[in-house]
Design a protein that fits this description.
By secondary structure, the protein is mostly helical. It has helices at 2-5, 18-40, 42-49, 62-89, 94-110, 127-130, 132-146. It has one domain. Helix 2 (18-40) crosses helix 3, helix 2 (18-40) runs antiparallel to helix 4 (62-89) and helix 5 (94-110) runs antiparallel to helix 7 (132-146).
């Protein structure tokens, strides 16, 4: 299984079940859309979706917060672009990229701090925290099945 996670050669020869790919694509579409929202519509994404309150001060802290939020969206978009490249050209790395998404989403559960739930900064819990347990279970199942060789498949 370790050889499937870290193949000796990165190629388009994914030996697992195609269902993993078919289930990962809609997830990756959603993550790509999320990234575009965070990068391009930072005010909407921050206040309407992530439930972060508008902070005031002198100087106004929001332009800096929007800039960081936009950069975070760009980083997410780069991660998604790398994932798309893997799915289109280097499918043998599919288990590895699913594992990376699993780590990211698991950190929302185990790495989230009290600021997320602090009413001084937030009007509610973000969807990323709310749905994280379900996404982590989904990604864990996807990851496990991505490491299982399909006996009827020698190359895709």
């Amino acid at each position: 299984m370790l050889e499937l996670l870290f193949p000796k050669q990165a190629d388009n020869n994914y030996l697992g079940y195609k269902l993993v790919i078919y289930l990962f694509v809609p997830f990756l579409l959603l993550m790509t859309w999320r990234s575009v929202i965070h990068m391009s519509f930072e005010e909407f994404g921050l206040h309407e979706i992530a439930n972060v309150k508008v902070l005031s001060g002198n100087p106004d802290p929001m332009p800096l917060i929007y800039a960081f939020f936009s950069v975070w969206g760009l980083i997410q978009l780069i991660f998604c672009a790398l994932s798309w490249i893997i799915l289109l050209r280097y499918r043998s790395l599919t288990p590895l990229i699913i594992f990376c998404f699993f780590i990211e989403w698991a950190m929302r559960i185990f790495g989230s701090n009290s600021v997320v739930n602090d009413s001084s900064y937030s009007t509610g819990i973000t969807p990323g925290v709310t749905y994280a347990p379900y996404v982590v279970i989904f990604l864990l199942v996807l990851f496990i099945f991505s490491l299982v060789k399909n006996p009827n498949n020698t190359a895709n």
